[in-house]
Amino acid sequence: MGGQPKTPQTKASRDVSGRSERRSARFLVAGLLAFSLINATKALYDAYHWPLFVPDAIDNDDQFGSPLKKQLKSMGVKEIAYRTDRAYNDADAGAFFLLQLRLAPILLRRVPIDDDDHPLLLMNFRATRRIGALPGFTLLEDFGDGLGLFRKQ
Description:
The protein has 153 residues and is of the alpha/beta class. The chain has three helices and five strands; from the N terminus they run ααβαββββ.
């Protein structure tokens, strides 16, 4: 009990220490608020930066599909046979569904070579990207990029 006597805190010293604590708390809150605003701004920018609607692969392909769609609609086609020049794989599935999306509501039917039910054939020469001759069919129109419309002879 014989240690140093306690010096009483004066009101002025308590005010100074209280103000410094409040100032520290204000800086901390301001820093957290600034950090939160920066993060929110970055997240919004990543999700919604200008231009908001950038053309994607489907939009670009739609420019390619519209002449084909117009041609088929003018012929009154509701369903058309579809084939590729190579074995079916996952990449072909993607191309098939994109083409189906571009041509909707016209229905594409993947058909084997010996199919006799469809008088029109949409042939996709994916390997060469150039239209080739098909035995038993007449080329009606070349739509470019290896896509051709054929009629059964």
